[in-house]
Every structure is written in C-alpha cells, then in structure tokens.
Design a protein that fits this description.
This protein is an all-alpha fold and 150 residues long. The chain has helices at 13-44, 56-61, 66-86, 88-109, 113-149.
Length: 150
C-alpha cells in the first residue's frame, strides 16, 4: 500500500514509480512553501533575528547593513520557492545551490555547525527533487513527442 492508498505488487516498477511520484510532490511542496515562508520572515523577524546569521566576512562584502542583506536574502528565497512551484527542474538546483551558500555562511560564522549539517540534509533532498523533476520532465517530453508522431 502506498501513501495514496494504491496497492500494487511488492517491488513492481509501478509501485516504485508511484512512490517516486509521491516523493516528488512532497519535496516539491516543501521546497515551494518553506523558502517562501522563510523569505517572508526575513521582513518580519518573527522566527528569529536573521541578521545574526550573516557571517561578518560576507557582511563586509555586501553593501548596506546585515539587516538589508537579509532582506535581499528573503527576496531570493521567495523567488526560489516560486521557481520550484512553476519549474522544479530549474528551481530545485537553485535551492540546492542556495543551501550550499547558506552552509558556507554558517561555517564561516562558526558555532552553527548543527544548523549547517541540517542544511546539508536539505541540500541533498533538493538534489533528489531535481533528479526526480528531470526524470519526470524527460518522461513527459518523451510522451508528448510520441503522441505528436502518432
């Protein structure tokens, strides 16, 4: 039995495909909603004071204050979430690269190795979503080409 309640033979390609589809939608929803929520919170600072998470080395490179930099970060996160929603084949790699940048920032900052490790797990999930999205897109493209030839 799968998450959606469909029953197929154990280990069959159909069951695997159904599971892959379910994982794709769970990851797509998560990597759409969560970056948007975190991005919006950069403007509200409800969850935390985001400026404290900006490494001084990076703060020195970007113009303005740490708070202003985090507002820009919020915009990027919102756009990344929207990109995952409309084009996960492109949005998921963007999110993965963004998470790599966050990990680098946290390691430069020091004292946040636990959060960096968690973000590494998120990065791996974003890479998984990208792989599923490309496989799903390639299959859809192949189906469309076959239908067009018929």
């Amino acid at each position: 039995m799968t998450l959606l309640g469909k029953s197929t033979a154990l280990g069959s390609p159909t069951r695997f495909q159904e599971a892959a589809t379910e994982v794709f939608w769970v990851l797509r929803a998560g990597f759409t909603v969560l970056p948007i929520v975190f991005g919006l919170d950069k403007f509200a600072d409800v969850l935390t004071d985001w400026a404290k998470y900006l490494a001084p080395q990076i703060d020195d490179l970007v113009p303005g204050t740490a708070h202003q930099a985090m507002l820009a970060v919020g915009v990027v996160e919102i756009l990344a979430g929207l990109l995952v929603a409309v084009a996960p084949r492109f949005g998921a790699p963007v999110v993965a690269l963004w998470l790599a940048g966050i990990i680098g920032n946290l390691l430069l900052l020091g004292g946040y190795g636990d959060i960096a490790l968690r973000d590494l797990g998120l990065l791996l999930a974003a890479v998984g979503l990208a792989r599923l999205a490309w496989a799903r897109g390639a299959g859809a493209d192949r189906t469309a080409r076959t239908a067009a030839r018929s």
